[in-house]
Design a protein that fits this description.
The complex is a heterodimer of chains A (about 425) and B (about 170). Chain A has helices spanning about 5-15, 40-50, 75-90, 105-110, 140-150, 175-185, 200-205, 210-215, 230-240, 300, 305-315, 335-340, 345-350, 400-410; strands at about 25-30, 30-35, 60-65, 120, 135-140, 150-155, 160-165, 195-200, 225, 260-265, 270-275, 280-285, 295-300, 325-330, 355, 375-380, 395-400. Chain A has about 425 residues and is α/β, with parallel strands linked by helices. The longest helix of chain B is centred in the last third of the chain and has 12 residues, at about 155-165. Classes of the chains: A alpha/beta (about 425), B alpha/beta (about 170).
Chain lengths: ~425, ~170
């Protein structure tokens, strides 16, 4: 029977010839992940199970990235729980401040996830790794605890939705715009419980950074996972980087999809998602005059090299508007270093932007850029829920990094074409 | 098990930041989290919620983050169960894993009003609105989830499995 890419990976990890949507499976996990918010709860639950050790010390990643560098005493206590657990179980993939990154930028960069893997993480944006041709999905702390003990997890095989992007991307349009457009079309529960498979010529032409951005936001449509069939771009990214053997899967030509959506990528403009849901996306030309107070560039969605390069291209030789605070968060230490070597950090600082160490901080209203009541922010992050970045009466507008950079210069939501 | 109480009504797409804002996630203490439960959706909720009360909401309840702190906060606030049109998938798993009863029914979610006295029979998924007299049947819980509930949550289920394997 023909299968999709998602079904093939699930079957392989369940030790089965085939699986069908709706089937419950017990699947072997290649890697499990927790952070400084979710892992403390998981550690507490893990200790109730009655096993001495984690299933495989090489396959448990702990990344304190949400409130780190620790923003207050309580956060410091949470981070300490991770550090002590990592020490006790001798976990090699615990990433300390100064050697870390935002988890979903860090794990692919460090070669800890690869094509064909099955990954679960106690963070909703774990779906990011689908960009590598892996099945990865977010779970809660208790599921993480169980998987740390057993090395397996139960999953319901999802129905698959196919999203075909024909044509080529226009100027300043990237993965962020494709996914915001898609969420705008199908809604924040348009892919609830289902796999989102992205295909088409525009996806084949998309860089790995752009693919990671797209799969990252599958959860914002309610999706279980986002996934892209691995190809030459994937091979180039994983070769010499992946620490474990990997396998390329692709969907059979006659695989079954619950529904197929087709878009002409050349017709998609840069998108801006208005408060307070990612589905409120509209083309940049329909935005109107929206004055802003802050711009955040970075996060697990748009904190990679392509993103920083796009922002720097717009900001080079320009100044941030007097009424705007621009804050830039490279995704990992390695990205920071690369951005420094390419002169991007200098461009940001000369423009009047603040450059931070990697952290999820502002994206979830944790620290490092909280909004006051009534303030508006353009962010390259993934959620614009009520109170997401601070005061319940603040507003977040989601965009790609080039639009965010142009908006920082002009003090209102604007496209790169308007700068000069 | 009968779950009964006064209802609190919320809209569609109630996200995990509305259930428990991330600014309070520097702790995982259930009582502390309960003190801020639903705060950004209804600031009066934490102070006024009573043991047994029921949250009723539209589609896609619990969308957004994977934070288990969301169902933990609701449970610790004394809420006996949540009835919604649909639940976001991570919240759905988390609720079962920590033992917060949840029920899916579009009709009940649409027709129950704020303040109605509602009773739910957990075993059958029968929802009875004592105020209007109307009854509803929730979508049946998948058999595997029933096993987790019967075991007393995922951790006990796994602990039992580990003991048997040894």
């Amino acid at each position: 029977m023909p299968m999709t890419l998602t079904e093939k990976i699930l079957a392989a990890h369940a030790g089965k010839e085939q699986v069908v949507p709706g089937e419950l499976i017990n699947a072997r996990v290649d890697l499990v992940l927790g952070n400084d918010i979710t892992a403390p709860v998981a550690i507490r639950e893990f200790e109730k199970i009655g096993v001495k050790d984690v299933f495989d010390r090489d396959r448990v990643a702990l990344v304190p990235d949400h409130f780190t560098p620790n923003k207050d005493i309580k956060s410091a206590e949470q981070s300490r729980l991770l550090r002590e657990f990592a020490e006790k179980h001798d976990l090699p993939h615990y990433f300390e401040v100064g050697r870390m990154g935002i988890e979903h930028c860090l794990l692919p960069e460090q070669g800890l996830v690869g094509p064909g893997d099955l990954v679960i993480g106690a963070d909703s944006h774990t779906c990011t790794y689908g960009a590598l041709g892996a099945f990865s999905t977010g779970v809660g702390s208790t599921d993480l605890a169980a998987a740390m003990a057993l090395g397996e997890t139960w999953l319901k095989v999802p129905e698959s939705l196919k999203f075909e992007f024909g044509g080529e991307l226009g100027p300043w349009v990237g993965g962020k715009d494709l996914i915001l457009h898609t969420i705008g079309d199908i809604g924040v529960d348009g892919a609830l419980y289902r796999a989102m498979e992205f295909t088409g010529s525009a996806i084949e032409g998309l860089s790995m950074d752009g693919r990671l951005t797209m799969c990252n936001m599958a959860i914002e449509a309610g999706g279980k996972n986002g996934i892209i069939a691995p190809d030459g771009i994937t091979r180039e990214f994983v070769e010499g980087r992946c620490r474990r053997p990997y396998q390329f899967y692709e969907s059979d030509v006659d695989a079954k999809y619950q529904k197929t959506y087709s878009y002409d990528a050349s017709q998609i403009e840069p998108q801006v998602a208005f408060p307070h849901l990612p589905e409120n996306s509209r083309p940049l030309s329909d935005v109107g005059n929206v004055e802003i107070d802050q711009v955040v560039i970075g996060s697990c969605t748009n904190g990679r090299m392509d993103d920083l390069r796009a922002a720097a291209k717009v900001l080079k030789g320009k100044k941030v508007h007097k009424n705007v605070r621009l804050i830039i968060f490279p995704g990992t230490q390695e990205i920071s270093l690369q951005a420094m070597q390419e002169g991007l950090l200098q461009i940001f600082i000369e423009a009047g932007g603040a450059v931070s160490t990697p952290t999820c901080g502002p994206c979830l209203g944790g620290h490092m850029g909280i909004l006051a009541g009534g303030e508006r922010c353009v962010a390259t992050t993934n959620r614009n829920f009520v109170g997401r970045m601070g005061h319940p009466e603040s507003e977040v507008y989601l965009s790609n990094p080039a639009v965010a950079a142009a908006s920082a210069i002009l003090g209102r939501i604007a496209g790169p074409g308007e700068v000069d | 098990m009968k779950l009964a109480g006064r209802t609190w009504k919320f809209g569609a797409d109630i996200d995990t930041d509305a259930i428990i804002p991330a600014r309070y996630l520097n702790t995982s203490d259930p009582q502390e989290l309960a003190g801020h439960c639903m705060e950004d959706a209804d600031p009066s909720f934490p102070a006024r919620v009573k043991p047994g009360d029921i949250i009723v909401a539209g589609k896609n309840f619990g969308c957004g983050s994977s934070r288990e702190h969301a169902p933990i906060a609701i449970k610790a606030a004394g809420v006996s169960c949540v009835i919604a049109g649909t639940f976001a998938r991570i919240f759905y798993r988390n609720a079962f894993n920590i033992g917060l009863p949840i029920f899916e029914s579009y009709e009940a979610a649409a027709e129950i009003s704020e303040g109605d006295e509602v009773e739910v029979e957990a075993a059958t998924g029968r929802i009875i609105n004592r105020t209007t007299g109307k009854t509803y049947t929730a979508t049946p819980v998948p058999p595997f989830m029933q096993q987790i509930i019967a075991a007393g949550g995922l951790i006990r289920y796994v602990a039992e499995k580990v003991r048997k394997d040894v």
